[in-house]
Design a protein that fits this description.
ELMO_domain-containing; about 65% helix; ELMO domain-containing protein 1; mainly alpha; single chain; ELMO_dom; about 220 residues
Length: about 220
């Protein structure tokens, strides 16, 4: 409780007081200092995101979730709020816009990935079924599938006769990842599949010390 109190005191009082003093001393707000003291890239973008997230201004907090089409207008509003003259600070608006586009871009990507992960596999969905059949053809191109529900699915790593039951945790994201891997790096995918089906063969190929000391083997 004491630790939380001091953290709260630091964030609400001391830190904001320090930022006020630094701004008075340098004549620059925190966003200006971040942009001018850091090279373009992930480090600067992360600092800008953190500054906006913990800002006392709702405009800066909400800017992190703004639509990409409204980023330019949002930057103009932020500069007006911070009383920054765009004519004397032309590079600042460009830097903030680039970083904010990155922030809203990866946040949108994370939301899309999470939505895909939560989408369950539906055997009644033709698109889902086509993806599953395509995965089989990529990994077993010379072996026809005898049926939608078959023990053959175990040959490519599924647990049972019906592969749809294996997508509970990752949903459709798991199937898409597997299919992408099989399509874009087929040699590696086939090699991994072959290794998984021949564990005894792989064990024999390990160095002698690793066979005798499996608990000390790396990985």
């Amino acid at each position: 409780v004491v630790t939380r109190f001091f953290v709260f005191l630091y964030c609400k009082c001391l830190w904001r007081g320090l930022k006020f003093v630094v701004r008075r001393f340098t004549g620059r707000c925190e966003l200006q200092r971040i942009c001018y003291n850091n090279k373009p890239g992930a480090r600067r973008t992360l600092k800008i995101e953190s500054s906006m997230r913990y800002s006392k201004y709702e405009l800066l907090q909400s800017a992190l979730g703004v639509h990409p089409d409204k980023v330019e207008k949002t930057i103009d509003d932020i500069m007006a709020l911070k009383k920054i003259n765009p004519d004397t600070n032309p590079q600042l608006g460009i830097s903030l816009q680039a970083s904010l586009l990155q922030i809203v871009g990866y946040r949108s990507l994370m939301a899309a990935v999470e939505k895909l992960r939560r989408e369950p596999y539906d055997c009644e969905n033709a698109e889902h079924e086509n993806m599953l059949m395509k995965l089989w053809k990529e990994l077993r191109p010379d072996t026809p599938l005898t049926g939608r529900i078959s023990k053959q699915w175990c040959e490519i790593g599924f647990q049972g006769n019906d592969p749809k039951t294996d997508f509970r945790g990752m949903g459709l994201l798991g199937l898409q990842n597997l299919l992408y891997f099989a399509e874009h790096d087929k040699p590696t995918a086939l090699q991994m599949l072959q290794d998984s089906l021949q564990p005894k063969h792989n064990e024999l190929n390990k160095p002698d010390w690793e066979q005798k000391n499996p608990d000390k083997a790396i990985g």
